[in-house]
Amino acid sequence: MARIICIANQKGGVGKTTTAVNLSVALARAGERTLLVDLDPQCNATSGVGLQPANNHPLLLNAPLRDSLLATQWQNLDLLPGSRSFVDVDRLERGSESHAKVLRQHLDVSMASFDYVLIDCPPSLGQLTQAALSASTEVLMPIQCEFYAMEGLTQMIHVIRTIMQQGDGRLTFGGILLTMYDPTLELTHEVDAEVREFFGDIVFDTVIPRDVSVSEAPSHGLSVMDYAPRSRGCRAYLELCMEVLERD
């Protein structure tokens, strides 16, 4: 069965989509059959791999999700594109329970040919994010090394625990990832220490540094591994990929 990893955080600008794209590419480059699912109406994961959003969201079509998959420029990596249609987003949010069932059914059956499925969620704790969590086997939470990091993380974990209690128990904590890590700032070390003391082993050893290459790569439709293979960001995402594989 595929590992279905929901990459979620209710806060924007924490490196969620960046992590979804770069981890997907790293897994594919490691030989893992990988699917990137774009559930964020901003469709940044779709454009981040150099493809165009769909006119209508695949979850709303009367067709198997596999019919909507797009091949990417990377071997072993396919994309289920997002849609920027406001009407589709509204329908997805209002019909979240039914769409959660549809998403889970397709990920369990239609996507059985994949080793990893990564879901990029909207920056919210809304119904669409909760639907994605219900369809996943684990959740990966990127958090920025800033003052309000723990506050947002606590809210996110409350929602995850609620879904765990209501579901069949297959959703687990996949890990917490510290992003935009600047070792020259005292605040960074304070957040790092506090998060690791509170959450222990579920925090990844790998941290994602502040690196302009990571920020620039999406504008070229590339991963940081392709855009700047010698950068600190590239090395960090390759190390994160190794940690994810080791936690299998």
Notes on the protein architecture:
Its EC number is 3.6.-.-. Keywords: Hydrolase. InterPro entries: AAA_dom (IPR025669), DNA_Partitioning_ATPase (IPR050678), P-loop_NTPase (IPR027417). This is Soj-like protein. The protein is an alpha/beta fold and 248 residues long. 43% of the residues lie in helices and 18% in strands. The chain has an eight-stranded mixed β-sheet with strand order 3-4-2-5-1-6-7-8, sandwiched between helices. It is globular, with a radius of gyration of 17 Å. The mean pLDDT is 88.
Radius of gyration: 17 Å
How many separate domains make up the residues?
A: 1
What is the CATH topology?
Rossmann fold
Order of strands across the main sheet: 3-4-2-5-1-6-7-8
Mean pLDDT: 88
Shape: globular
CATH class: Alpha Beta
Report the strand count: 8
How many angstroms does the end-to-end distance come to? 11 Å
The helix/strand order is: EHEHEEHHEHEHEHEHHH
Task: Provide the helix percentage.
Answer: 40-55%
Task: Tell me about the largest β-sheet.
Answer: 8 strands, mixed
Q: In CATH terms, what is the architecture? A: 3-Layer(aba) Sandwich
Task: Assign the CATH superfamily.
Answer: P-loop containing nucleotide triphosphate hydrolases
Q: Helix/strand/pairing class, anyone? A: alpha/beta
